[in-house]
Design goal:
Layout lengths: L1 E5 L4 H11 L5 E7 L11 E5 L2 H10 L5 E3 L5 H12 L8 E4 L5 E5 L9 H18 L5 E4 L11 H17 L2 E4 L2 H7 L2 E3 L3 H14 L3 E2 L2 E2 L6 E4 L8 H11 L3
Parallel strand pairs: 1-2, 1-4, 2-3, 4-12, 6-9, 7-8, 7-9
Antiparallel strand pairs: 5-6, 5-10, 11-12
Helix pairs in contact: 2-3, 4-5
């Protein structure tokens, strides 16, 4: 299994993680900007390019690598090129998260501009269900909203999220978990945030403040294994393993 990972910032952190996960079953190629010095006493392979994000994605789509990880490549240019190269209208991501107690669950939407409509969320749920099957996560769906059902009438914004969650539950067969995220993550394998902003805040609160773990956010609508990562991540080894696990199911 060959996995590519990008590195344009905090390069040493990426190299250390990639070297740790390199094994007889996973070979890692690091895609780097031109001119970056690398070591030869390592199992890693390197690909230097003026545009490493393009080189990584091109290699993935040509089948030269089995899976890709964004690593510390710029989010905007990398995801934009991935969208253009795969011909999709929008990149759909689902994050694999883990609480400090070891409970793993999928969360979506996690991009601030994702999950804007009911149809967007339906597609994300279906993508999350496919991903759950691939990596062995419970495919039950809990849909969060901005309050409890007893809060109807307190705020138009809360009312809207309650109505949307109820509708989404009927369409997809999921369960409206109200605002009770603390129960949802222990009950459902897939948790649906009210929107991408709150989903991003959930991710950041859990991983960057709450000592949880982010394993990366696979893109679920492109037909190849590509895992998006946050540049705030401390360990990219989890994302490499996740990309390999998804690629093995393709």
């Amino acid at each position: 299994m060959i996995i590519g990972i990008g590195a344009s910032e905090e390069i040493e952190k990426v190299l250390v993680a990639a070297e740790k996960v390199s094994s007889d079953t996973i070979s890692v190629i690091v895609f780097l900007p031109e001119g970056v010095q690398t070591r030869s006493d390592t199992p890693l392979r390197y690909h230097h390019s003026q545009h490493p994000e393009r080189a990584l994605i091109d290699a993935l789509l040509r089948g030269e690598i089995d899976g890709g990880v964004r690593g510390t490549l710029p989010a905007h240019s990398t995801l934009r090129y991935l969208r253009e190269a795969t011909g999709v209208n929008q990149i759909e991501r689902v994050a694999l998260l883990e609480t400090i107690e070891g409970r793993r669950f999928l969360l979506t939407p996690v991009g601030v501009d994702e999950g804007m409509t009911i149809n967007d969320k339906v597609r994300l749920i279906r993508g999350a269900e496919r991903l759950a099957d691939q990596i062995g996560i419970d495919r039950s769906v809990g849909i969060l909203s901005g309050g409890r059902l007893g809060d109807i009438g307190r705020s138009p914004d809360v009312d809207r999220t309650l109505a949307e969650a109820e509708l989404l539950a009927r369409i997809t067969g999921g369960i409206h978990a109200e605002i009770l995220i603390e129960e949802a993550v222990h009950t459902f394998g897939i948790v649906i945030a009210p929107d991408g902003i709150s989903g991003n805040l959930i991710f950041r609160t859990l991983v960057l403040l709450g000592s949880g773990t982010g394993h990366g956010a696979p893109v679920v609508n492109i037909g190849v294994s590509f895992v998006d990562t946050s540049r705030a991540s401390e360990n990219y080894g989890n994302a490499i393993h996740l990309a390999a696990a998804i690629a093995s199911q393709k």
